[in-house]
Each structure stands twice: as C-alpha cells, then as structure tokens.
Amino acid sequence: MVIVYFILILTGVIMVHELGHYLFARLFKVKVLEFAIGFGPKIFSVKGRETTFRLNVFPIGGYVRMLGEEGEEIADEEEKEKSFYAKPAWQRFLITLAGPLFSILAGYLLFLPITLNWGIALPGIDEVVPGSPAEEAGLRRGDIIYSINDKIAFDTSIISNEIQKGLPVELVIIRNGEKKSLRLTPRMYPETYEFVLESAEGTPSGKLVSVNGNRDTSVLKEFVNEYVVLEFEGGTVKGILKQFNEIPARYMIGISFSGLAPVFKKDIYFKEGLFVFKKGDRIVRVEDQEIEGWQDLVVLYQRLTLGKDTMMVSLQGNDLEWWRGLSGSVRVVIKRGDSTIEKNVEASFLKNILETPDLLEMGVPRYKPKNPLEAVNLSVKACNYVLLTTASSLKNFFRNVQTGQIVGVVGLAGVISAASKTGLEAVLTVVAVITISLGVLNLLPLPALDGGRIIFSLVEMITRKRLNPQVENIIHFLGFIFLMILFLYITFLDIGRMMGI
C-alpha cells in the first residue's frame, strides 16, 4: 500500500508541475508534442489533437516536450511559428517559470484545507523547570506557544533561535483556547554532560567531583570506550563510558517541548484477542519512573533501548539526573478511569509500542484558527516558512553542510510511509511540502532545471541576443548528467540513513 501511495503522490505532484508548463505553452500557441509523467519506456499513451499524453515506467520526474525545444530544424514555416524558440524570450521565460510556480501554488492551496479541517501544529510545553524564567513568567505544562517576537512558532527551532540571542522575548501562548501575552528574559545555563555507562556499578549523588582521580571533570570526554571511576559528592560510580555528549552553555527559559502524551489512542494487543492496554489508558509509572509527559517517555524509551547493567546520566552544573536501563519484564502502572492497574510486560514489547506511530495521543491539541481569515493567514505563513526552510536546506546542501536535510526518492518513500501510518492530515501535509520543495528545487539556476532555462531567457531579455539553441541544449545535457550524478549521491545518502551508516 505504501508503494501505491508513493506512486500516486509522486505522479500527482509531477503532473501539477508539468501542467504549468503545458498550459502556458498552449497559451502562447507553442505546439506541445508530448506530456509525459515519468521517464523510460512508456506504460501507455493517449494521442490528442497535437499532444501525446504518456505514462512512463519510472515515476521520478516528467516532462513537456515542445516543438523545436531541442533546437532541431523545422522546415514548415507554419509549424516553425509554433516552435518553442520561435517565441520571444519573455514568453519562454513564463512557460518555464509556470512549472515551479504551479508546484508552489499547489502547496499553498493544499495547506488551507489542512488548516481549516485539522488546525495547525504548534509547539506545546511539556515541562517547566522550577525557578526558571518560564515559571516566573507563569508558563505551565500544556500551554501552546503561538508566537515569539511576532514570529509564528511553526517549529521549535524558531523559538530556540530567538531565545539564544539572550534578549527579552515576547511570547504569545494559547491556554484553554485563549491567547495570552508574556514577556520573559532568557537565562544562561551551564554546559550539560550526557553520557552512558555500561557494566555500571554504584549510585551517583550530588556534584561530580573527579574523573579517574582528576578534579577537572571536563576530561570525561577523553575516556569514551574506556573504564572510568566517577567520584560524586554522595557516592562512586564505575563503568565503561560508551557514549558522551556535551551541550555547551546556552540561554534558556526553562521549558521542554511537548510531543506525545502517555495516553493510548487505541487498544494494544499482545496477541490476537488478548489486549494489554485499552484506549484511554494513561501510563503513570514504569518501575521507579513517574511518567507525566513527553520528556518522561523519551527517557523511558532510552532506558528500554539501553537494556541491562547500563546507566545514563545527565549533569547540568550541580543538577544531576540518572536512570538505569530496563530489560526483561517491567512493571507498568496505568490509570484506567478511576482505577489504577499494574501490569508486567516485556521491555521489548513496551519499546515496540513507543516506536509505533499513531498509538499515543498528542501532548497538546492542534490549534484551530478562530475564523477563515486567520486560517488563510496562518496557512500562507506556514507555506512561507516551508519555502524559506527548503531554500536554506538546498543552500546548505551545496555548501556540504547538513546534508541530512535533503532526501531523494528512497528517503521520500520512507517519509510517505511514516505519514500514511499517521493519517490523512499527515499525508496531505507531506504532499504540500513535497510540491513546494519541488518548485523551489526547480528554480535553482542549474542547466537542465527550469531555473537554468529561466536564466538563459533573462539573459536574452537583457542583452537582446539569443544563444544558439543547439549550444543551449548541449549545456542542459551536461547539466542533466550532473543532476543524475547528484541524484545517485542523494540516493546513496538515503540508503546510508536507512542502514544507520
């Protein structure tokens, strides 16, 4: 079924893009020879009055082939007037621009019904640190952050980037459906050490005093995969340091963002006919860990992943948190209505539940605009954010930075697969993001892409001189070879991510 979703979505996105080229070519009386979805051998075709519409084997692109587009000689004068290069540069510019423009506009149009029907996902607050600027300002668990410094909070990175400036911030939050403005000043928090010990012995308590006898505790990072003795104020811990992560000192307001809630959306069965958890059950404790929200679920999942005889530790200044890994049978306490129920389940089974999409409720509801005008405003701004984020990702990719932000066909299939398990809203959102991204990608000023052809048209419009069409097509052919190499490289990255390389 995922393959069907993938083919339908990709075909639809490509069709919209090529439709832009086709309609504008017809508008300017350019003869369109072929309107094709996909590359390679044809599956079937339909012959129109002038155009052959065909579906090809590989649905990873498409094309509109216009008369004279490849620079070929046309003897018939009447036909010659219908050729692509017989048209003035401004018309060729608009024909080429129409594809990316249709892709981007389709994304904008698609976001509106998504916003009207399901609302928009905004960051919620899961935890508020005692004594933090957030607590002092009155923020609470369950609050939704609508905007920060007049920027709609479509992503947590928008909030983090503003806070990292260290300047006072203006927050607009949503609480019980009503908006409320708050002002608070971020505070500098010390660096954080997060590490995992295998074959761990002992119990940490208080401040970390020494590492293998060294009072400079920052040397801990130098002992990865080695046996360490950690002296805390209240005890000694020994083990093999398997993972270490240092988060530098940074400005924070003392909140953690919400994700999923520890509440089941549906019945969970251990095997057919034997349910373990029922819809509406809330996990309140697993072994010695209280479960209240998303951050607790994250810690729980890490413990289930680590397994037996391991310990994970988080140190931020004098603040210490630590947990032992879980394996075998674990005791889970749930709240079902007014009753409290204890169950023993396998750690691997519980881990699988936390990994499965669409089993748990969202921590905070989606925000539904109060009126259609607000919905239009939010959907347009959401698309603007996708547009800018896509452009930034492409820029970083070509600078060889953050290449993980770019996915190819293989990665795209994984994204669609995950969305299909979540629901229609997630699928439509993915389609909207894909079509906007396709439009932005095609605007890159590279030969063989629409952006490259747009550049040639603009140069001709400015200089009043036309480049030989055959020379232009050679340049586009070389660009096509480059894009195929790039396609293979991105596919390699996709496969590497899937295999954890």
What do you see in this structure?
The protein has a 6-stranded antiparallel beta sheet, covered by helices on one side. A 4-stranded antiparallel beta sheet has the order 5-4-6-7. The chain has 4 domains: 188 residues, no CATH class; 65 residues, Roll (Pdz3 Domain), CATH 2.30.42.10; 58 residues, no CATH class; 97 residues, Pdz3 Domain (Roll). The model has no long low-confidence stretch (mean pLDDT 87). It is 40% helix and 30% strand. Helix 3 packs antiparallel against helix 10, helix 3 crosses helix 11 and helix 8 packs across helix 10. The chain is built from 12 helices and 24 strands. The longest helix has 30 residues. The chain is α+β, with helices and mostly antiparallel strands and 501 residues long.
Sequence stretches where pLDDT stays below 50 over 5 or more residues: none
Shape, please? elongated
Helical percent range? 25-40%
Report the total helices.
12
- Please indicate the count of domains: 4
- Mean pLDDT value: 87
The main sheet comes to: 6 strands, antiparallel
Extended strand count: 24
- Rg, nearest Å: 28 Å
* Spatial ordering of strands, largest sheet: 10-11-12-9-20-21
State the distance separating the first and last CA atoms: 27 Å
Percent range for β-strand residues: 25-35%
Secondary structure class reads: alpha+beta
Organism: Thermotoga petrophila (strain ATCC BAA-489 / DSM 13996 / JCM 10882 / RKU-10) (Thermotoga naphthophila)
GO molecular function: metalloendopeptidase activity
Transmembrane segments: 6-25, 93-114, 401-419, 426-444, 474-495
Pfam family, one: PDZ_6
